Amino acid sequence: MQICGVDDAGRGSMLGPLVIAGVSLKKSDVSKLKLLGVKDSKQLTPKLREELYKKIISLVDNYYVAKISPKLIDASVKKHDLNHLEAKYMAKVILKLNPDTSYVDSCDVNPNRFGKEISKLSNNKKIRSYHHADSRFIVVSAASIIAKVTRDREIMKLRKNHDLGSGYPSDSKTIDFVKLYYKTNQILPVFVRKSWKPTQKILES
Questions:
Q1: What is the 3-state secondary structure (H, E, C) of 9-69?
Q2: Beta pairing, strands 18-26 & 126-130
Q3: For a disulfide at 140, which of 5, 102, 146, 164, Cβ 3.0-4.6 Å?
Q4: Separation between Cα atoms, residue 167 and residue 19, nearest integer Å
């Protein structure tokens, strides 16, 4: 019996990709994740996440990571379709891993609806969709660590050439970076999500 956990990272960010990650392993091996110290990525330091990332990858039977570009995110936001885009990519991850049952962290206010959509997109696979699945199911916590580390590495790559903070709208360094870049170049960098409200504000002002 193969079970799978799927989670995202970077959904609220103004820049960089939205990352969807999934891990699959035998149901009988799930307790081993607990022994590693796996928990929701938000409760771990970046250093611990990096260490656990390597351990998770060597423990699980399979894993898969998908990155959704800012361009694709913007196109979906335009159509008020971001949840559908995420469901599509979660289904893609599940199809790759081909488990018996999948646990997913729902970004939709209606987890049931979100689960049904993923099930349809992944050829009626058995989907269990919940809010806060990353803190409720250890297999989703493991996926959340893979997603977060992948996303952090993408931001680190961008940081080599840009001083851009965390990427989140709550971070003034990120806002200042986007403002200055736009003022200097009259365009936005490709890695900035143009459909985000804080970005729109900058473009309007």
A1: ECCCCCECCEEEEEEEEEHHHHHHHHHHCCCCHHHCCHHHHHHHHHHHHHHCCEEEEEEEC
A2: unpaired
A3: 5
A4: 14
Residues 21, 25, 27, 32, Cα dihedral to 10°: -90
Give the pLDDT mean for 69-79.
Answer: 97
**pLDDT digit string (tens) for 35-56?**
999 998 889 999 999 999 999 9
Nearest to 154 by CA among 204, 190, 112, 105: 190
Tens of pLDDT along 123-168? 978 999 999 999 999 999 999 999 999 999 999 999 999 999 999 9
If you count them, how many residues does the chain have? 205
Handedness of CA 27, 40, 80, 199 (dihedral sign): negative
Contact 179, 201 (CB under 8 A): no
